[in-house]
Design brief:
Layout lengths: L68 E7 L8 E3 L5 E3 L8 E8 L11 E6 L5 E5 L13 E3 L8 E4 L8 E3 L5 E4 L14 E3 L8 E4 L2 E3 L5 E4 L15 E3 L8 E4 L2 E3 L16 E5 L8 E6 L2 E5 L5 E6 L10 E3 L8 E5 L3 E5 L5 E6 L10 E4 L8 E5 L3 E6 L5 E6 L10 E3 L8 E6 L9 E7 L61 E10 L5 E9 L10 E6 L7 E7 L9 E8 L6 E8 L18 E7 L18 E4 L25 E5 L7 E10 L4 E11 L5 E3 L4 E4 L6 E2 L6 E3 L7 E3 L6 E2 L2 E10 L5 E11 L6 E3 L4 E4 L6 E2 L6 E3 L7 E3 L6 E2 L2 E10 L5 E11 L6 E3 L3 E6 L5 E3 L5 E3 L7 E3 L6 E3 L1 E10 L5 E12 L5
Parallel strand pairs: 40-43, 45-51, 53-59, 61-67
Antiparallel strand pairs: 1-32, 2-4, 3-4, 4-5, 5-6, 7-8, 8-9, 9-10, 11-12, 12-13, 13-14, 15-16, 16-17, 18-19, 19-20, 20-21, 22-23, 23-24, 24-25, 26-27, 27-28, 28-29, 30-31, 31-32, 33-34, 34-37, 35-36, 35-38, 38-39, 41-42, 42-43, 44-47, 46-49, 48-50, 50-51, 52-55, 54-57, 56-58, 58-59, 60-63, ...
Length: 951
């Protein structure tokens, strides 16, 4: 029984997955590990599953610390969309294939220049154990923005993980299934653009339904927009946000942290946004209370906020530039976390009070926004920091900044950071680095580093997003409803880092190997095939490469090793595989043959198990076989083939012309061709190899790819214009375009845009010809019409005049005006200005006529009225006269006058001048009347006074 090792007192029993037939709770003491075995020795196993299973047990695997980093493997491209081989984002590590081995998911773009090259990306998945391709979504309709980050997890609770990222146009979210097929895309919305940032996953309100976070936006697991925060998309300057969730205040509901802005689970403000710029964020515990503090970096500064959004301190980025995403960890092992921060010219570590602990020169001129991670490689309590700038990958001592490892690297850089995870299921950490050679010569693709002796500490087999924290996802890809507040445990008080010795929500579940039914059979070539069935009766998966040793006699008593078989597939819990060892020639004789699982032939094993004592089985075997007849080699027959190029200007074909195996032995006959294609235009030599498992034969044929596909040519729509000239007019139109599967196809037209077209309809024909002489054509009409537009004519307003003459009057008026699109349009009227108009209303009509005979008209009235103006009359103001004593009155004279526009206006008065006016005041009224009967009056008084001085 193996002793379970747990450096942090975190050994716990686990019940495993629901698909297992039977799995008991772990019966083990805290910190010691172990399990009890219930499988009967020698029990037969059939198919792909063994039953019953043993009770689950867990433990920390053996660990011998060492630090000799070296490249383990590199992915540099694929036959699927081979031109998409550049990586400039943070990869995720998660099992998408379901084989128990972690996979690496990332987006790729084409090499080239300019920012546009990383907008259109192909999402890919490769296996973590050797980098082999798993899938790639090459559909142009489902491109992803290649420089943005992605997130992965089970968003719909179907037991399979999904991957979500930013679409190629930067608007909203696009999600994929675990096999890379398209799942959904959100509807674009206003102000939702994200350039280099990316989404995160969380169950904000703990209801078991996952939300997708993108800056200040939260979507449901089906892509419905749930709410938009009030403080904008935020994130790094001009390149977008990476928001995430954390339960800052411990109320069971997670907050959304988007740089300086913090929102509650329902989108309301958690606290007023801090008076600092937007940027990247991270959470950790920097004081004694249980609530998290928030680090925000960007726009050349880094700040620490408390849980109420109050700024505790702000410092400039020591390395200059914008400042990348912060990395939190206790780098100097003083019990308080520090902040790791990339800049333009240096990587820096700031103490919890914002003071500089150390900095080291780097080169990050392109973005100044990259990220980093940290890990305790040797599990000695001393963290290392891992950072890749434009040209170097470095591992620093976290406390001092001393460079422990440095190697060449290349990247134009966006927001990416290295990732630490156990990517090949070997219980030792690996380092995953994204590379591209768009700006600097070097590497492109994914590079995975490990320790030369696999001496790096074991850690989780998952890293699911840029804003990764140690408890935001379970080991099987589920998003927890109420994740552990990691900052409350000192060894988990980190952000953007995995932790040495911490295996997530479940410690290491151990396998338990048993062997059954050792058998032998003879092959057709006379070889002896020794076989045994190996079953995994435990809860943990056995990785690919399990060794099974065969011995003649008991190895514990000095038996002779016959050889070692290696399983090419992983062995999940409850499954079984057959291990076969060929012996040629067969040794002969009858012996007891032992088969021992997890044995390298020298008595040493690789895998830690619940019980190491039941790994062997034995049987008495006859080791003799008769030889088979001599093999007839296969026959390879080739032919030359000509095929038409497809839509991508490539062709595929087989040159096989009836290759065969005359005796159909010893192994299944197979034919392979190299290169496989597809092939470009021209002739290509292909070698065919036929094999029967023992012998082979070759021949050579030629695959010729010819272009027979016509270009696709598109003409503009028909156009119609008017012309003032009878000779026609110049007409411009959009250029005809052409697309071809094999490159350019220049277009020529019978008439050039801008040429003069005559009046009438002129057909225009356009044709395109590709490099292989294939042509296609299209056409459209240009119609030129004469002038059909009426002129515009404007008349003066109606006019009214008076006349004294009963026959009317001469009337003048403003002449009407006209305009026309093709020149002058003279105006003529029914009555000329200055002509005589009779008393009454006379309509006047005017018409304009252009050179093409188009007419337009308008009208107005001239009204002549008779005399209606009264005359003007003038009377004296008053008249006085005197009489002597004895007189009763006196004759008084006075004068009046009147004028009129149309002649005399006689005046008559109520008392005529010269009449006798009596003593006192006599009122007088005078009236003037003209020839038309118009009257005007005036009034005055005549006063006669007594004057005693008169006789």
């Amino acid at each position: 029984m193996e002793q379970a090792r747990d450096t942090h007192d975190r050994v716990r029993g686990r019940t495993g997955h629901p698909w297992r037939k039977r799995l008991f709770a772990a019966l083990m003491a805290l910190g010691t590990g172990g399990c009890s075995e219930t499988t009967a020795p020698g029990q037969q196993v059939s198919g792909q599953e063994a039953s019953p299973l043993s009770e689950a047990c867990d433990a920390q695997p053996p660990f011998e610390p060492n630090f000799e980093p070296e490249l383990q493997w590199a992915w540099t491209g694929s036959q699927q969309a081979p031109e998409f081989n550049q990586v400039m984002m943070t990869p995720v590590v998660i099992d998408v294939s379901g084989d128990g081995v972690p996979d690496i998911v990332f987006s790729t773009f084409k090499n080239g220049s300019g920012d546009a090259i990383w907008k259109e990306g192909v999402l890919r998945a490769i296996s973590g154990d050797d980098g082999r391709d798993l899938w790639a979504n090459t559909d142009p309709a489902h491109r992803i923005k290649a420089a943005s980050s992605i997130t992965a997890g089970d968003i719909d609770n179907d037991g399979l993980v999904e991957i979500c990222g930013i679409p190629s146009d930067g608007r909203g979210i696009i999600c994929y299934e675990n096999d890379g097929t398209f799942k959904f895309r959100t509807a674009p919305d206003a102000f939702d653009y994200n350039e280099w940032g990316g989404p995160s996953l969380a169950d904000l309100d703990g209801d078991g339904k996952v939300e997708i976070l993108d800056g200040n936006r939260v979507y449901s697991h089906t892509g419905t927009l749930k709410w938009v925060g009030a403080d904008g998309m935020g994130g790094a300057e001009n390149t977008g946000p990476v928001s995430f969730a954390a339960d800052i205040d411990g109320d069971g509901k997670q907050e959304v942290i988007n740089g300086r802005s913090i929102y509650r689970h329902n989108g309301s403000a958690y606290c007023p946004s801090a008076p600092i710029p937007h940027g990247f964020a991270a959470v950790g515990n920097f004081d004694e209370d249980a609530k998290a503090e928030i680090v925000v970096s960007g726009h050349g500064q880094v700040s620490l906020l408390d849980d109420t959004c109050q700024v505790l301190w702000t410092s400039p980025v020591p390395g200059g530039g914008h400042g990348g995403s912060p990395n939190i960890g206790d780098f100097d092992n003083d019990g308080v976390p520090e902040i790791g921060l990339p800049g333009t010219n240096a990587y820096s570590v700031l103490d919890s009070d914002g003071k500089l602990l150390w900095k080291s020169p780097t080169q990050e001129l392109s973005s100044g926004k990259t990220g980093s991670t940290a890990f305790d490689f040797e599990d000695d309590g001393k963290l290392e920091i891992i950072y890749a700038d434009e040209v170097r990958l470095r591992i620093y001592d976290g406390a001092t900044g001393q460079v422990r490892f440095e190697t060449n690297h290349s990247s134009s850089t966006t927001h990416e950071n290295p990732v630490i995870a156990d990517v090949d299921n070997d219980f030792a950490a690996e380092l995953v680095v994204a590379t591209n050679d768009t700006a600097y010569p070097g590497y492109h693709g994914i590079r995975v580093y490990h320790d030369k002796k696999e001496g790096w500490a074991h850690t989780r087999r998952i890293w699911n997003q840029h804003a990764y924290s140690i408890t935001n996802i379970t080991d099987d890809g589920r998003i927890p409803a109420q994740p552990t507040r990691h900052w409350l445990q000192s060894f988990l008080n980190a952000f953007r880092s995995n932790v040495a010795g911490y295996l997530g929500d479940s410690p290491l579940l151990l396998p338990e190997l048993s062997t059954f039914a050792v058998t032998a059979q003879c092959a057709e070539n006379g070889a002896l095939l020794l076989s045994t069935t190996v079953a995994n009766m435990g809860a943990g998966t056995v990785p690919t490469g399990l060794k099974v040793a065969f011995y003649r006699g008991n190895p514990a008593s000095g038996g002779t090793r016959l050889g070692v078989a290696v399983l090419s597939e992983a062995l999940p819990s409850g499954a079984s595989r057959e291990a076969t060892l060929p012996l040629n020639p067969s040794p002969g004789g009858t012996f007891e043959i032992f088969a021992v699982a997890d044995d390298d032939g020298m008595g040493a094993g690789r895998d830690t198990e619940c019980d190491e004592t039941n790994n062997s089985a034995s049987a008495t075997i006859d080791l003799s076989c008769q030889e088979t007849p001599a093999n007839l080699p296969p026959v390879a027959l080739c032919q030359d083939v000509t095929v038409s190029a497809n839509a991508t200007c490539q062709g595929t074909a087989s040159i096989d012309n009836g290759s065969h195996d005359p005796d159909n032995q010893p192994a299944p006959f197979s034919v392979s061709e190299a290169p496989k294609g597809p092939f470009g235009l021209g002739s290509h030599s292909v070698t065919l190899t036929a094999t029967d498992g023992e012998a082979s034969a070759q021949c050579v044929g030629t695959v010729t790819v010819v272009d027979t596909t016509k270009p696709e040519v598109s003409c503009p729509a028909a156009t119609t214009l008017e012309s003032c000239s009878p000779q026609g007019t110049a007409v411009t139109f959009a250029a005809a375009t052409a697309q071809d599967n094999c490159g350019e196809a220049p277009v020529t037209c019978s008439h050039a845009s801008g040429a003069t077209f005559p009046v009438g309809t002129t057909p225009v024909s356009c044709s395109a010809q590709d490099g292989s002489g294939n042509t296609a054509s299209c056409g459209f009409n240009v119609t030129v019409t004469g002038d059909t537009a009426k002129p515009s004519v404007s008349c003066p307003a109606s006019k009214t005049v008076e006349t004294c003459a009963p026959a009317g009057a001469a009337v003048t008026f403003e002449p009407p005006s006209s305009t026309d699109n093709c020149g002058a349009a003279p105006v003529s009227c029914s009555h000329a200005s200055g002509s005589k108009f009779p008393v009454g209303t006379t309509p006047v009509s005017c018409s304009a006529k252009d050179g093409s005979g188009n007419t337009a008209s308008c009208g107005f009235d001239v009204k002549v009225t008779g005399d209606t103006t009264p005359p003007a009359i003038s009377c004296p103001l008053s008249v006085e006269a005197k009489v002597g004593l004895g007189q009763i009155g006196v004759a008084v004279n006075f004068a009046t006058s009147a004028t009129d526009t149309c002649g005399p206006a006689p005046v008559t008065c109520s008392h005529a001048p010269g009449l006798l006016f009596l003593l006192g005041l006599t009122p007088v009224t005078c009236t003037a009347t003209d020839a038309s009967g118009n009257q005007a009056s005036c009034n005055f008084g005549v006063r006669v006074r007594l004057d005693l001085s008169l006789p």
